[in-house]
Amino acid sequence: MQRPAIEPTKRWQKRPRRFGSYLLMTVIALFSLFPIVFMLVTALKADEGQILREMSTFAAFLPTGELSLQNFRDVFARVPFARYLINSVLIAFTIVLFGLVVNSLIAYALARMQFRGQKLLLAIIIALIIIPFQAVAVPLLLIVNQLPWFDGRMTWLDSYHVQIIPFIADAFSIFLFYQFFLNIPKDIEEAALVDGASRFRMYAQIIVPLSRPVFATVAILQFLTHWGDFLWPLMVVRNPAVRPLTVGMQAFFGQMPRQWGDIMAFATMVTLPVLIIFLLFQKWFVQSVASSGVKG
Amino acid sequence: MKRLWIRSFSLLVGLILAGCGAAATPTNPPTTSTVDANPGAASGTVTLWFHSGQGAERDALNATLQAFAAKNSAIKIEAIELPEGAYNDQVNAAALAGELPCLLDFDGPFVYNYAWSGYLQPLDSLISTDVKADFLPSIIQQGTYNGKLYSLGQFDSGLGFYANKALLEKAGVRIPTLAQPWTRAELDQALSKLKANGLQYPLELKMNYGRGEWFSYGFSPFLQSFGGDLIDRSNYQKATGTLNGAASVEAMQWFQSLFTNGYVNPKPAGDTDFAEGKAALSWVGHWAYPDYAKALGADLLVLPAADLGKGSKTGMGSWNWGITSKCENPAAAAEVLSFIVSPEEVLRMSDANGAVPARSSAIAKSKLFGDGAPLNIYVQQLTNGVAVPRPITPAYPVITSAFAEAVDNIVAGADVQAELDKAAQKIDADIEDNQGYPVK
User: Which of A56, A167, A255 to mutate to test the interface with B (most CBs of B within 10 A)?
Assistant: First the structure.
């Protein structure tokens, strides 16, 4: 008799606490969404004066006043946006594609093959994770500036490959793959070995199919990183033919007063592909984070 | 299966490499090919970088380059437009890699740092004395470092008060002239009267531009008008004693009082307070003229800088052009530069961006800046010593960022002496780190 009497009371006591935590989570979620809402809403506001007037008020988050796609048209009129977009997509996708192959192969070798210096190599790779790119950017610039290419030029500057090749091998990606591969039982590979399979075949036909979540995670993390790359392309690319979106956007920062509508329209068009990619791969991403325990 | 994998991967690598190679071709500036044996008749290729400024400015420069191509077939220009927001960083990175073009433009005060770093070559032997004499003294002053001319511009800038005539008259404020500018007391009184007349913020200082070059360009003339400065200009070795000296501190205390007295809005929501009649005065450069003229019509007045104690002072300097020291064909680059700064092209640019033409012969033909024209006051400020160049030292990038930070904090209510002490220390530390920027 006592039990049912206590239960509702407990539930009743829990309810405000649960309500409170949901409220808190909702506020935090809204807070994180505010910049994106601000960006989208501002991009649609045609009147630059209105944008400035509302900048420090709540109205900045509301689609008020005259709404149009004029800012988007302005972006296309002012810079070759399509060219920049193609460049960014090509660069980010190529890094991801080559990165998946190269880094997973390195990680596979480290996780499964015995060779002299294996542990030292692993330690060096893990140590590399902590070195920020900014620290090596200038020496890297001086190196790529002296490297020959197939077209006879004696520098890599102003090209796609200078934005791709230095980022294919990535210490953090190797570490993620390595961690994941360690957790795959060796039994299947040993069975394959008995059947006469080569190392590469084991990698391609056993490890890769079993490691889809980590491949997805690395792909997403690498894509997000290199989609937003700014410092490196700023240093090595001058020609608009190979200029990515992030550097192209700088055309809107300079002369005063700034056209925030145009800037936000540009930012919206830069952000949308990333959002779409994330939504497409969300399942893999969450699954991988849950299984590998690595939080990006 | 193994072979298939290897084949597919090799194919992918091949395709990407081919793609990179093909894509790189147009980017491949055939590095200045011919070094002409006879510098009198220049030919060859000149690589040129310029910043993507306003649309009209960009169009004018493109028109200039096309006009040059039509006139001179022996010299081929390979122009690359770089995004303005990252322009200086890209120039610095290229300089580091030794990949600067022959000819490039840059914001005025950076010339000293570029010249000291050895990026630029002197123009003295490449530009004739006659041509030099036609330039505004401010352009020559701005482009000269260590006794050598390193840069020439198509235009200079003008800075002063724009005023709403109706609002001044209503408040009974005297209209100043170059010969009789406002004194500090008069300016304070005018602001007080205008505020009493119902204007919430009578003066606009373009605080919406945010911390950056505007703070140094726009507000350091106040320091100079009080008798202070950003650095001791006798040898450019120390900011301590000058930037945090009594005159500078007094100047910035007065500047802070503009905000504490409620004369200036520290966080304006927009750029339009003056154009909408909410402010009676606007302290800004020549670039505001077209919008203001449209908004106020006959009520718009262009007024000189006030004399805050040690004479009226205003800013000068804008984007200008230089030839890099790595340029293998300086004769051809000089020919392109001479064309860019020819009176016709200077006028074309000035008509497009509304800036002060850099050459006297172009000013005479300008509808905005010629004798009696609405913005002629800027020419007078530039020629009669009212305009002060920003410090002629390679330390300028540090000076401007330290001062801008101080201004930002002072506007927010920080202690003036402490802020200026901090800025002066930062500048002195940089000069010390560079051994006083010895002239090489």
Answer: A255
Q: Which of B29, B49, B84 sits opposite A254 (nearest CB)?
A: B84
User: What is the model's pLDDT at position B6?
Assistant: 43
Interchain CB contact of A205 with B (< 8 Å): yes
| Average pLDDT value for chain B | 87
| Edge-to-edge strand ranges of the sheet holding B319-323 | B75-83, B44-52, B103-107, B319-323
pLDDT digits 0-9 by tens, B30-47? 333 333 333 446 788 999
Q: Which domains does chain A have, with CATH numbers?
A: 2-68 (no CATH), 80-292 (1.10.3720.10)
Q: Which residues of chain A have pLDDT under 70?
A: 1-13, 255-257, 285, 287-296
ipTM of the complex: 0.73
Q: Which two tokens stand for residue B298?
A: 């006959």
**Alpha helix ranges (H) inside B80-183:** 87-96, 110-116, 129-133, 137-143, 165-171
Interface of A with B in 28-47 (CB under 8 A): none
CA distance B119 to B97: 11
What Cα–Cα distance (Å) separates residue B256 from each residue in A113, A116, B259, B263, B409?
Answer: 69, 68, 5, 10, 10
The secondary structure of residue B230, as a DSSP letter, is: S
Identify the structural domains of chain B with CATH numbers, from first to last: 44-157+317-388 (3.40.190.10), 159-314+395-433 (3.40.190.10)
Which two structure tokens, joined as six digits, stand for B66?
């096309």
> Strand ranges (DSSP E) for B279-351?
281-285, 300-303, 314-315, 319-323
DSSP string, A118-182: HHHHHHHHHHHHTS-HHHHHHHHHHHHTT---TTS-S---SSSHHHHGGGTS-HHHHHHHHHHHH
How many helices (H) and strands (E) are present in chain B, helices listed first? 17, 14
